[in-house]
Design a protein that fits this description.
This protein is mainly alpha-helical. It contains 13 helices and five strands. It has a three-stranded parallel sheet. The protein has a two-stranded parallel sheet with strand order 4-5. Helix 1 links the parallel strand 1 and strand 2. Helix 4 packs across helix 7, helix 7 packs across helix 8 and helix 10 packs across helix 12. Bound molecules: adenosine monophosphate and tryptophan. Tryptophan (TRP) binds next to strand 1 and helix 7.
Amino acid sequence: MTRRFSGIKPSGEMHLGNYAGAVQRWVDLQDDSIYCVVDLHAMTVPYEPAALQADSRRLAMLLMAAGLDPQRCVLFVQSQVPVVAELTWILNCVATVGELRRMTQFKDKDSGQESVSAGLLDYPVLMAADILLYGTEEVPVGEDQIQHVELTRDLAIRFNHRFGDTLVVPKATVPPVGARIKDLQDPTAKMSKSVDSPQGTILVLDEPARITKKIKAAVTDSDTTVRFDTENKPGISNLLSLLAAATGRPIPDLEAEYATGGYGTFKAAVAEAVVDYLAPLREQFSLLENEPGEVTRLLAEGAAKADAIAQKTITRVRAATGLLARS
Ligand code: AMP
Ligand code: TRP
């Protein structure tokens, strides 16, 4: 089996783009996989300590509610396996400042700021430590993270060259094109939690009535046919993508069914499908909310499983790099 690892930052609420574009894929590929709420990465930019704690738990609960089953995969919160910080330090001595400065995510976040944390520059090394600590072969990520996975490969290859064959060299896997969900109010931008577009973003825990309202208010075009054409009909194409994600049906089928029925009927169908798609998640989430002790226990169990894998890697890394064995 292929060992997969991926991480998600606990910043803001999970939205439909995260769920349909990433989390759904994690759920489908969860056997022998490791999924992590990366709270240490969330510390690289200014944040509220109390909010971080609450958000980390909440995101872990959302992932469980979405269908990640702690019996089938390893689900844990990054900082609960602190050895990742040790591997980050060791990899810091393999990475160069030049290559970290060249990362586009760093350049984007750094530009125009008077001062940023050293952690922000080091963000990709912590991510490399996540991936390499768990012997990861495949890293399912969005396109924006490919550069970081490439850096991880470079660091693993360089490490192995310098210290002998120790680390598994991973590769990124990205979802097929078209898996991008767009903002309902601006269908040329991706749906995102950071953007100031509450009406354009569906949160996975939005009330059904709110979901319906947002979909009915989605920006479309002055034409009347339902057709997938991202160039000329970005709004309708996005709604078709949503309907396809929510129902698991291919887009051509949906086009055939809704082509001439009018936008009102089509939007009503999309809203109903999205509400149904998210209903089990809402239900599971509220069950977990009533069992905080169980959530704590499941996370501790996940961290223990992750730690067992991590200890094997760090023992080899320590020996290879000339650190004394821990007695
Ligand atoms: P982020 O919210 O940026 O931390 O991303 C978490 C995961 O969700 C990543 O794998 C992203 O590629 C994915 N993702 C975020 N926004 C979207 C979107 N609008 N459509 C599809 N996938 C997305
Ligand atoms: N940097 C990733 C993101 O912003 C999150 C992440 C942290 C991650 N560690 C990871 C993704 C390890 C894959 C593997 O989406």
